[in-house]
Amino acid sequence: MKKKNATPLFWGTLIIILLWGTTVNAASLNLKELENLALKNSPELKKAQIELEEKEIDYTRAKHQASQIPKKTVQEKEQALEEAVNNLQLTKKQIIAKSYNQAISFLDAKATLLERELNLKKETQALTLSEFRFDKGLISQNELNSQKNKLKLATENKAQAKYNYQLEIMKLNHLVGVSLEEETDLDLPLFSIPVLPQKDDIYQCLIKKDTSLNLLQKQIAEHSLTLELAQMQNEAALVIKEKELALEKLKLDLSSRENELIFLAQTEYLSLWDQYRRTQNSQQEIYDAQERLNEALSQLSLGLISESEFKDVQTSLELCNLKHQKDVLSLSVTLMNLDLPVELVEVGVENNE
179: helix, coil or strand? Predict the structure, then answer.
């Protein structure tokens, strides 16, 4: 991987956030800790590990009894062991994807709560101004009541967002196996956007995952052998024709399925690029928010804006960070679901592998 260099603007903004941020008394998890705790707490993974151990015992026993049991039995035990190994790896991938999805839901709820808090503050200030204008006879009672209703709605929206956020915290706690009352938080850095695969890579992954394609290929091989044997034995012409037609149908099914996979690979590729585009946009929003924050800091030092206004700009940057983290994780989950490799690299950290 190429070295990802953070701009001075990025690091300067981080320092500003640390200086102005408030301390939260909560257990913070980074992404690797989230993965490990989710794996450790998963009953599905424990079950898959037990099943693997059982298959290892069965296969070991069969090998020692190889001279006393059919060779096919040993092969079946070996195949069962391979399937158990694959199932364990698949279960791990599914749990990691599940932990990413929970992180996405958590970040989304946290961002929504921040948005609702900003909106509530805005509507509260607007009501104060409306009351002042009403007292001066500049607006009507209906206009004042309209602003009061906006504040009431903003208050309700914030309460709903807070409930959803607390619910996501509980889900996160349940996933990692801690008390549901814990105020767990995620401490995630900004990650570089994952590299997108080529269209052919997606196609090959789809082929590998598609059991129907493998089955059709086996059936074609078997029917080809049967047809060849019938021709060698000079069977009746109608029998041979029947076998030729059956083989032709299978080949058509195979061709149709391959075309379906090509189409699916194309749509997945386009979908990935659309996700990638949105992730790039959210990254650009961070850069724009950083510039606004630096400008706000300059204005604050000159006394042109209040500390409260500065913190609003800071919160806007935090919102952009949360949305971009969510976009990166969403793109990563899509790649995982396609069985494509995913490597998340923290911005500003060199990967020497």
Answer: coil
212 neighbors 254 (Cβ within 8 angstroms): no
User: Apex CA 211: angle with CA 204 and CA 251, to 5°?
Assistant: 85
Look over the chain and give the mean of its residue pLDDT values, rounded to a whole number.
88
Report yes or no on 73 lying in a domain: yes
Q: What is the mean pLDDT of residues 273-298?
A: 95
Structural contact between residues 226 and 243, judged by C-beta atoms closer than 8 angstroms: yes
Is 194 or 1 the better-scoring residue by pLDDT?
Answer: 194
Identify each DSSP E strand in the chain by its residue range.
Answer: 28-29, 185-186
Q: Say which CATH number the domain at 82 has.
A: 1.20.1600.10
CA atoms within 13 A on the CB side of 237: 0
Domain assignment of residue 164, given as a range: 27-188
According to DSSP, the residues that pair with 186 across neighbouring strands are: 29
Q: CB neighbours of 218 closer than 8 A, spacing ≥ 6?
A: none
Confirm whether 345 is domain-assigned.
no
Residues in the chain: 353
| CA gap 343, 1 in Å, rounded | 10
10 vs 171, higher pLDDT: 171
Q: How far is CA 34 from the centre of its chain?
A: 13
Encode pLDDT of 222-232 as tens digits: 989 988 888 88
- How far apart CA 69 and CA 26 sit, in angstroms, is 59
Number of domains in the chain: 1
Report the pLDDT value the prediction gives residue 19, as an integer from 0 to 100: 37
pLDDT attached to residue 181: 86
